[in-house]
């Protein structure tokens, strides 16, 4: 529940709290995922991995603000090629490029920060 409140846009302090590791007892299903705003073209983002579902090709990230688009910090569930998710675990910080269309965000490239 704490992450859902932080992502709701409580300001700079909340964004800084996203850098802290998640409690081990927090299941990925307890994270509230905001709908991804629409945007044209390839976008860049960075954030902390909250959950990885390699079988489904899903990655949940506490995304930092994207000032050029006016987006606040969001918790986003991205589609991704399962090969991109190899070796990722909750708590990792990543930088990535993605596309957002039809309410679905898909990561095209990522690297650990």
Explained architecture:
By secondary structure, this protein is mainly β. It is 11% helix and 36% strand. It has 2 helices and 5 strands, in the order ααβββββ. A 5-stranded antiparallel sheet has the order 3-2-1-4-5. The longest helix is centred in the N-terminal third of the chain and has 6 residues, at 2-7. Residues 1-32 have low confidence and may be disordered.
Brief summary:
The chain has 113 residues and is mainly β.
**Percent range of helical residues:** 10-25%
How do the strands of the widest beta sheet line up side by side? 3-2-1-4-5
Termini, distance in Å? 26 Å
Query: Segments where pLDDT lies below 50 for 5+ residues?
Result: 1-32
What's the story with the biggest beta sheet?
A: 5 strands, antiparallel
Query: Rg from C-alpha positions?
Result: 13 Å
**Number of separate helices:** 2
List the helices and strands and how they pair.
Elements: H1 2-7, H2 12-17, E1 43-53, E2 58-63, E3 74-79, E4 93-101, E5 104-112
Antiparallel strand pairs: 1-2, 1-4, 2-3, 4-5
Quick tags:
disordered N terminus; 113 residues; 5-stranded antiparallel sheet; single chain; mainly beta; 5 strands; 36% strand
């Amino acid at each position: 529940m704490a992450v859902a409140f932080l992502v709701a846009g409580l300001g700079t302090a909340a964004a800084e709290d996203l850098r802290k590791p998640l409690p081990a007892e927090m299941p990925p299903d307890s994270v509230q995922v905001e709908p991804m705003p629409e945007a044209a073209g390839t976008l860049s983002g960075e954030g902390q991995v909250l959950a990885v579902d390699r079988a489904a090709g899903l990655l949940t990230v506490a995304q930092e603000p994207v000032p050029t688009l006016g987006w606040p910090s969001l918790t986003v569930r991205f589609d991704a090629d399962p090969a991109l998710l190899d070796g990722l675990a909750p708590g990792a910080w990543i930088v990535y490029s993605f596309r957002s269309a039809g309410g679905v965000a898909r990561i095209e490239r990522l690297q650990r920060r």
